[in-house]
Amino acid sequence: MEKIQYEVGDMVFAAEDILNDGGMPGIEEEEGLIAPAGMRGVVVHYGVAEMDESKEIYLVQFENGPEGTLGHPVGCLPDELTQEEPAAA
């Protein structure tokens, strides 16, 4: 992996709704919502996809609830993340 887009500790936002691909414990629906677009999180680890080592994968813990506690790590592709803060509603 030559270029790392995000480093451990970087604050990121979901660029789109992050949906369960069937591998997220605690999310009953196969396409259940894990993190809505704009939700803030922090990169806790990164690596490559097992099936295609040319694809970066970032483990992100998104905020969970009004207290800002962090949820379980979620594997995200780079195009699912951004560092641009969403516009205030």
Keywords:
89 residues, mainly beta, 5-stranded antiparallel sheet, two-stranded antiparallel sheet, 7 strands, globular
Q: Estimate what percentage of residues fall within beta strands.
A: 35-45%
Helix content: under 10%
Per DSSP, the total helix count is 0
Low-pLDDT runs? none
How many DSSP-defined strands? 7
Oligomer: single chain
| Major sheet characteristics | 5 strands, antiparallel
Topology pattern, helix = H, strand = E: EEEEEEE
Report the structural category. Answer: mainly beta
Rg over CA atoms: 13 Å
Tell the overall outline: globular
**Biggest sheet, spatial arrangement of strands:** 6-5-4-1-7
How is the secondary structure organized here?
Layout (H helix, E strand, L loop, with lengths): L10 E4 L3 E2 L13 E3 L4 E9 L7 E8 L6 E7 L4 E2 L7
Antiparallel strand pairs: 1-4, 1-7, 2-3, 4-5, 5-6
Describe this structure in words.
By secondary structure, the chain is mainly β. It contains no helices and seven strands. It has strands spanning 11-14, 18-19, 33-35, 40-48, 56-63, 70-76, 81-82. The strands form two sheets. The protein has a five-stranded antiparallel beta sheet with strand order 6-5-4-1-7, with no helix packed on it. A hairpin with a 6-residue loop joins strand 5 (56-63) and strand 6. The chain is globular, with a radius of gyration of 13 Å. The N and C termini lie far apart (37 Å). The mean pLDDT is 85.
